[in-house]
Amino acid sequence: MNMTSSRGEAEDEIDLTRLAQSIWASRYWMLACGFLSLFGASFYLANTQPTYQADTLLQLETRSGAMALPTALSDFVASDPRTVTEMEIIRSRLIISKVVADLNLDWVVEPRLAPLFGTALLRYDLPVPDVGPMRSFGRKGDIIELGLLEVPPQWVDQPLDLTANEGGAYSVVLPDGTSLQGTVGELVRDAAHGLTLRLDALTAPAGRRFTILQLSERTAIERVRADLSVVESGKQSGILSLRFNDGHPDRAVVILNGIAESYVKQNIDRSAAEAASSLDFIEQQLPLAKAKLDAAETALNVYLQKQQSVDLTLETENVLTQVTKIEADLADLQTREDEIKQLYKVSHPVYQQLLAQRARLQETLQSLRAEVETLPETQREVVNLTASLELARNVYTELLSRAQEVRVLKASTIGNVRIIDTAGASLIPVAPRKSMILAISLLFGLMTGAGIGIMRTWLRRTVHGTEALEKMGLSVFATINLARSARQKGRGDHSILAVSDPTDLAVEGLRSLRTSLQFGMLDSKSKSIAITSTAPGAGKSFTATNLAVVSAQAGQKICLIDADMRRGQLRKLFDCPKNAAGLSEYLAGEKTLEEVIRRSPIDGMDYIPTGRFPPNPSELLMRKTLDELVAELDSRYDLSLFDCPPVLAVTDPVVVGRATGGVLAVVRYDETPLAEVNALMKTLETAGLRLTGTILNGFDPRKARAGGYSYNYNYRYDYKRRGD
After folding, report:
1. Bridge partners of 332?
2. Which pTM does this prediction carry?
């Protein structure tokens, strides 16, 4: 097996695990962002006017003579070209312009909307005071109906600002800045500008403002067209589904019914126009056919009178009958061809079928005429004249019959389109889609929260275990678990854990620290230790106090010194008075060591409080008195613990560390950044000190198992404003 490959796969697995752990650790961020995202989506939905959809069905009936494709070929055709044509006709200005004119869709009357939540104010009874500037914004229940509007061409697409007054009165500010006064139901005219306006209804308190707009025809058509959709229901079904979207379901139904009716009427008019065109052509041909009939009758009568009498054989009469019938059929085909020319091209199958039929008839006619040529001259002439007469009579009779048929067709034209379902609208809006928007917003919020958590994990590198400290060359003397009381009560409990809950795992960690110190300080110059941290909140006072207690419980003689002469609070753990003398008085030479040392309730443990907070703690610590104190404590106690302020906040722990036998830094699990630990090391090295070791405090096994990290810690270097 390739070991390099195995290690790479293991690293990839660790990276994926770390990613999953980071996501799980970000669950509170995810919940917060998800809630905010849902709130934003809810606000958007409340402030968005719902859109309703009306729909109707139309059927396109097949025209006579239309080409039918074979089934095998129809499968390759996406849609019937005739259907596509009709769909474009429905969306054309020819149809929509009539609807715009009939329903006055080029008039726009809208209330003035409040910023941010104007639509929500129109939809809901929100508890917003109707006073001051808010009085001009539209509210739920406001009603305005425009009965008539005529504006000059230069004011098309220009808004008119209408303000409601008391008693049904109103005022209108025109685009040029002038104003007009009016009353509901009365006609308002401005002859100078060519403006006419009438309101049929106005239900709104005084001060409410509205915008009136006369749209251009093209703009109104485009607005209707944008909300109209036409699709074919099924492939080559001939069924068209029309849908129209609008903010009001009733208005959507009215507009869609208007579009459907306008289209059907247009279709009927188009069919009637075709019938009228055919009738005009036939009526033009009737006089010509009548004249040919009269001429043929005259020619036959004249010839018969001239010849006195001509007897036709049975065979001759049969030929004459056939010639007459074929010539009549050819004449009928000629009439049909004239009509077909207006509908189809020569290449169309219907036209080609007619040409083939005419060719066959002409061929038969030629053969019959050849037989006629073999007859005697008199009989041949009679046959020809009689055939011409019969032909003229048949043509004239056919034209009369066709004219009557076309007149009936024109009178009863219904077109080839019919409405299957009249328009109807659902009471459930089609937009906005609440469920989808809420789901997407929740997903977006969760992803955002996870992204924030992952970014914080990778950008804010904190101590997540002893490995990170050991990689920096630091010794970890002990790992102290997060105390049960800290989980339940949080920080701020002034009891000593080693006394109140000696079985806690954190106390076991302190006992381990006690053992490590016994071996780690064998070669130390002093039996005193300075305990510090990088920043407030790491738990150095907690560590120093409880370490002193467990060491005393083990039979050692311990002295705990509160060396934080700025914000020291150890006295509270032992109910020491605030004005009791302590370290500051000893360093200033005001008190002796016996006067500042106090007995604690724990056998074998003494403590020295800070005393009064001096204005110059660093200067006091730099006196030789500190070295004398450390030496004296070494002679009296087995271990002296100096609880110092944070290194990155003040210089006091550096001064104390030079006098003691070692410096321990308390690092809080998942809160202390690695960069701060590095800065602490450099600060001590600059002063000629070496960090003896570190203590990992606040280790939470739950986070370690889940691999998650909490980021509720907010570090500030303003140490003077925050206690330990």
Report:
1. none
2. 0.58
Pull the structure tokens for residue 28. 């509170």
HEC string of 245-273? EECCHHHHHHHHHHHHHHHHHHHHHHHHH
The encoded tokens of residue 127 equal 């508890």
For 370, the 3-state DSSP assignment is helix
Domain boundaries, the chain: 3-48+432-458, 52-263, 271-420, 471-490+502-704
What pLDDT score was predicted for residue 370? 73
Task: Dump pLDDT digits (tens) for 225-260.
Answer: 999 999 998 877 889 999 999 999 999 999 999 999
With tokens 């303000």, the residue in question is 163
Q: Which ranges in 341-433 belong to alpha helices (H)?
A: 349-372, 377-411
Q: How far apart are CA 46 and CA 366, in angstroms?
A: 85
Q: Which value, in Å, is the radius of gyration of the alpha carbons in the chain? A: 52
Cis peptide bond upstream of 432, omega within 30:
yes
Nearest to 502 by CA among 485, 527, 516, 479: 485
* Rounded-to-integer distance, Cα 38 and Cα 44, Å: 10
- 241 beta partners: 57, 231
Question: What is 125-146 written as a DSSP string?
Answer: -------GGGGGS--TT-EEEE
Q: How far apart are CA 233 and CA 242, in angstroms?
A: 10
Looking at beta carbons, which pairs linking 470-476 to residues 24 or more positions away fall under 8 Å? 472/674, 472/677, 472/678, 472/681, 474/677, 474/681, 474/691, 474/693, 474/694, 475/520, 475/692, 475/693, 475/694, 476/693, 476/694, 476/695, 476/696
At residue 723 the predicted structure's pLDDT band, cuts being 50, 70 and 90, is very low
Q: At 463, which amino acid appears?
A: V
Tell me which residue has tokens 């780690």.
Answer: 520
pLDDT in tens, 449-485: 998 888 876 776 788 788 889 888 899 999 999 887 7
Which pair of structure tokens corresponds to residue 137?
A: 């914004």
- Cα separation of 559 and 528, whole Å? 9
In angstroms, what CA-CA distances link 460 with 15, 31, 430, 680? 17, 21, 45, 17
**Pairing, β 107-111 against β 209-214:** antiparallel
Domain 471-490+502-704 class?
alpha beta
